[in-house]
Specification:
- The protein has a two-stranded antiparallel ribbon.
- The chain contains ten helices and two strands; from the N terminus they run H-H-H-E-E-H-H-H-H-H-H-H.
- It is mainly alpha-helical.
- The chain folds into two domains: 14-82, Winged helix-like DNA-binding domain superfamily/Winged helix DNA-binding domain (Arc Repressor Mutant, subunit A); 97-241, Four Helix Bundle (Hemerythrin (Met), subunit A).
Length: 244
């Protein structure tokens, strides 16, 4: 059966396509705070979906705090401070924005050194083995960046998510799963930063050795230095990309 692509392209489901198409435009500012969404009929015609599909998508976006449907008045975009910024899809839609990347690094600096402390006390042999494999993958693929970016970032993501799980704190682990889409994009961006990987790869090894050696203070210090070093490299990259 042939598939005719409208403006939405291909996606998991038609509902998901509509939600993402509108959501990304809100998060990017294309549909700005206080603006009205096009009416149901116009959106349905533009996106080649039913009006019912538009209504369901608007309900999903309202549940995320992005819009407010008002009977007979239409649907308006809500201000950012009303959005559910911890929603996985909202995180994904944000994840290429520079301000989101900065906020993510700040959050990581608050959370990951503490998680590393707990991991050094609580990590299982299996979790330590996973950290070792992830680090080995990073070390293997680092010399082949940017060609091996996908493999490098996958190993890097595994390292950080495993560390959060190894903390033994279910809320920290849940936070990692929640932030996974944004963390993936953040690690991708940091892998592009000039000198970033060369300076942070030895710090990943320091974290690994401290966790494996059950040295909580050393694990926290190494993780703090890792994220601070990443932040500095990413900031230089952002500044270099800004128009002069």
């Amino acid at each position: 059966m042939s598939v005719t692509e409208g403006p939405l392209g291909r996606h998991r489901t038609m509902h998901g396509q509509v939600v993402e198409w509108i959501g990304r435009r809100i998060v990017s500012g294309e549909l700005s705070h206080g603006s009205q969404l096009p009416n149901e009929a116009d959106l349905a015609a533009q996106l080649k979906v039913s009006r019912g599909g538009i209504r369901e998508a608007v309900k999903a976006l309202a549940a995320k705090g992005l819009v407010e449907p008002r009977p007979r008045l239409g649907t308006r975009v809500l201000p950012r401070d009303q959005w559910n910024l911890m929603d996985r899809e909202v995180i994904t839609w944000h994840s290429t924005a520079q301000d989101f990347l900065t906020d993510l690094l700040e959050l990581r600096l608050m959370v990951e050194p503490g998680a590393a402390t707990l991991a050094a006390e609580r990590a299982t042999d299996e979790q330590i083995a996973t950290l070792e494999t992830a680090y080995a993958g990073m070390a293997e693929h680092a010399p082949r960046l940017p060609e091996a970016e996908e493999e490098f970032v996958r190993a890097d993501l595994t390292f950080h998510l495993t560390l959060l799980r190894a903390s033994g704190n279910q809320l920290v682990e849940q936070l990692g799963r929640l932030l996974e889409p944004g963390l993936h994009h953040g690690l991708e961006a940091s892998s592009h930063a000039p000198g970033g990987v060369a300076s942070t790869l030895p710090l990943h090894r320091s974290v690994l050795l401290a966790v494996r050696g059950h040295r909580p203070a050393a694990a926290a210090r190494a993780m703090r230095r890792l994220i601070e070093t990443t932040t500095a490299a990413v900031q230089k990259m952002i500044e270099a990309e800004e128009p002069k």
